[in-house]
Specification:
2 copies of one chain form a homodimer. By secondary structure, the first copy, chain A, is α/β, with parallel strands linked by helices. Chain A is 31% helix and 29% strand. Chain A has 2 domains: 112 residues, NAD(P)-binding Rossmann-like Domain (Rossmann fold); 149 residues, Dihydrodipicolinate Reductase, domain 2 (2-Layer Sandwich). Chains A, B: This is Gfo/Idh/MocA family oxidoreductase.
Chain lengths: 308, 308
């Protein structure tokens, strides 16, 4: 089978740490071009702009967009207009409206568009979804608490308008919860704590209810020192499910059921290859929609200034 | 033809001023019940809760939800589960996620769900859409400037979290612009001015671009004294279109082309009757999605305290 000729747009940390090894390990893909203003990769054609690649003699079937979200819509639109399949890093856009536009553009051209939520490919997530599918949910607690100084050093953009603040990591939690819970859920109340010298929240408490009324409480914190928490607990009438380490460990009633090596990005590329083979798309904005709902509905309180 | 037996849920100002006369004037509807905690209407069955109506011997085919947005999702879900068609006043929900849930619930049951955007039925809107459909857009200016003290006296909820502030009227502008412009558009930058003693913006400037790059600038103001503005100007390569008075007057190159009496709510009920007859739904969240995008992406600056 001829591999899918892929271009990677944006060659930052996530592209080097995750995309490049996942592409190299998957025989269904062949990396044929890098688009980056500054960075190059030995042995791979390099372009400083996507438009230059698309008018060159290097043929690509698909592009993976690993740039920050702001320019992503224009790049994706350009790629779709040129007949290329598109993978979008998370979050899939700076706004919901632009993702909806891409969904329509891909559908009109029968091209594959994939919104990626890498945490959904953590090893505990799929078995958690299967276990919960048949059980009555009583309550859900999301604790996503990390030290921004450790995990996001020097990332000033995270505090800017549109930078999402503590929702930058917490959107991973929302991507897991929207996947594993059997029913949709909706924000009823939220509080965002925004440092007096920043635009984006550093802490948040969110109260959702699912369609059957079960409470879902999320506590998000960017100032967590000591033990870090990327945990989701689900109480059911048939015992408690717990995902820890961002989905890498699954416990049922305190007993470790699954753990394993990081397989998230290989899982994304496996899904991308299958979508292309099937002529299908996977456009799910629900995690970003919950974040937008939180910004729309929540009360804002002023938190002390944050200085890195 | 048997009329559609309709229940009105919520009997506040908008229900009395707009819904009741529109229903009375349309022979395709028969008002058979009012659901309201406090208010009643002579000669119409009255219930204090929707659940009581649905288990009573009064048969309804459809419900129009005129309550504030916060309880609307639970009410709509209840009505759909009981097999009733549903009309949602604007905005269709407190969050985008809950409207998506209703869309799916209606589709699963083959029931009609209508998100209503009354300003789209203003007399100038449909001819504006037709005129713009064939023309190249150069720039769009939205000026939505009104005096909150005149138009929203005592409406403290408008300033609360989720109350939308100046977006409560401006969502009408967005409902018109999303209807008349031939291409989708996306927020690229926004500034929200929030009074230091309130949660919701009192002024906003929003910069959008349409899919072909044309700039769309919206200036929203809740502190406008003197002349009020509910105006949309569209520069095309073939002249300028202007909608004023919230869409009630249409000008092309300064010449008045259309004006007429208020026909917005009769238009909504006409559309609702047709959707029910056709077994169709009209679920368009694009105006609310733009508002959520504005809250997600915009910079916030502190404005002076607002005291009514």
């Amino acid at each position: 089978m001829t591999p899918i000729r892929l271009a990677l747009v944006g060659l930052g940390k996530i592209a080097r740490d995750q995309h490049l090894p996942s592409i190299a390990a998957d025989p269904r893909f062949e990396l044929v071009a890098i688009v980056s203003r500054n960075a190059e990769l030995d042995g791979v054609a390099h372009f400083t702009a996507l438009a230059d690649l698309l008018t060159s003699d290097v043929t690509v079937d698909a592009v993976a967009l690993c740039t920050p979200p702001q320019p992503r819509h224009a790049l994706a639109h350009l790629a779709l207009a040129a007949g290329k399949h598109v993978m979008l890093e998370k979050p899939p856009g700076a706004t919901l409206s632009e993702v909806e536009d891409l969904r329509q553009a891909a559908a009109e051209r029968s091209l594959t568009l994939q919104t990626t939520w890498h945490s959904r490919y953590a090893i505990g997530v799929e078995p958690a979804r299967e276990w919960l599918a048949e059980r009555a949910i009583k309550a859900v607690r999301i604790n996503w608490k990390e030290d921004v100084r450790v995990w996001h050093p020097g990332q000033d953009w995270i505090w800017d308008a549109g930078g999402l603040g503590v929702f930058d990591p917490a959107i991973n939690a929302l991507s897991i919860v929207t996947r594993i819970l059997p029913r949709p859920f909706f924000l009823s109340k939220g509080v965002l704590h925004v440092p007096e010298n920043k635009q984006s929240p550093i802490q948040a408490e969110l109260d959702f209810r699912d369609a059957a009324g079960a409470p879902i409480r999320a506590e998000l914190d960017f100032l967590q020192t000591g033990p870090q928490s990327w945990d989701i607990e689900v109480d059911t009438e048939d015992g408690q499910l717990k995902l820890t380490h961002g989905g890498a460990k699954l416990y049922i009633d305190g007993q470790l059921m699954r753990e394993g090596p990081d397989q998230e990005y290989p899982g994304l590329y496996d899904a991308f290859a299958k979508l292309i083979a099937d002529g299908a798309s996977d456009v799910d904005v629900s995690p970003l929609r919950h974040v937008a709902d939180a910004f729309l509905l929540s009360e804002r309180v002023t938190a002390p200034a944050f200085v890195e």
